Q: What sequence folds into this?
């Protein structure tokens, strides 16, 4: 039987998003493969998490591309990005809280993502759409945090799935928008 590595990663992502402490045995079971097969693809949890990181970065970059963040107003670009990242929100929520990814040498993919998201907020500031007293780096981190929190709120049933995009956009953009008085 041929193992679809990406499918194993997606299954692992779904499991680890719900249960961050899941063991390799649990990941193998959820993937419908044996532990030995899982270990042939991923030598251990660290290798699995690093592979998930690569998957998450690819999915986030694809979401950024699909969101066309250079088009239209910065607010509209942020709204499109929220919509495009929604399918990968659980993986992003897992990755941004996975401490081992931020120990030692960081994957340069995070810098690319941070730069692209930050550029949207910088553009909004230059065009007078967003407040200038909040740094683009902070707004980028707030974006990640709200996507993760939004995922958990939906996942736990505290918020309806249909409200994911609305609640994130309203809170983030409501705080980022430049008021007439400023």
A:
């Amino acid at each position: 039987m041929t193992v679809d590595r990406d499918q194993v990663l997606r299954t692992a992502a779904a499991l680890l998003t719900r249960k961050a402490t899941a063991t390799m045995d649990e990941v193998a079971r959820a993937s419908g493969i044996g532990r030995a097969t899982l270990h042939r693809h991923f030598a251990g949890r660290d290798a699995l998490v690093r592979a998930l990181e690569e998957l998450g970065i690819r999915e986030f970059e694809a979401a950024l591309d699909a969101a066309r963040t250079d088009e239209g107003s910065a607010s509209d670009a942020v709204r499109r990005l929220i919509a495009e990242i929604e399918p990968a929100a659980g993986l992003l929520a897992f990755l941004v809280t996975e401490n081992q990814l931020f120990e030692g040498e960081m994957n340069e993919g995070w810098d690319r993502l941070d730069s692209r998201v930050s550029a949207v907020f910088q553009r909004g500031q230059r065009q007078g759409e967003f407040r200038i007293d909040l740094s683009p780096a902070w707004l980028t981190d707030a974006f990640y945090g709200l996507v993760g929190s939004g995922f958990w709120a939906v996942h736990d049933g505290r918020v309806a799935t249909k409200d994911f995009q609305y609640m994130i956009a309203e809170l983030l953009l409501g705080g980022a928008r430049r008021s007439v008085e400023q």
About this structure: The radius of gyration is 18 Å. Residues 78 and 139 are 11 Å apart (CA to CA).
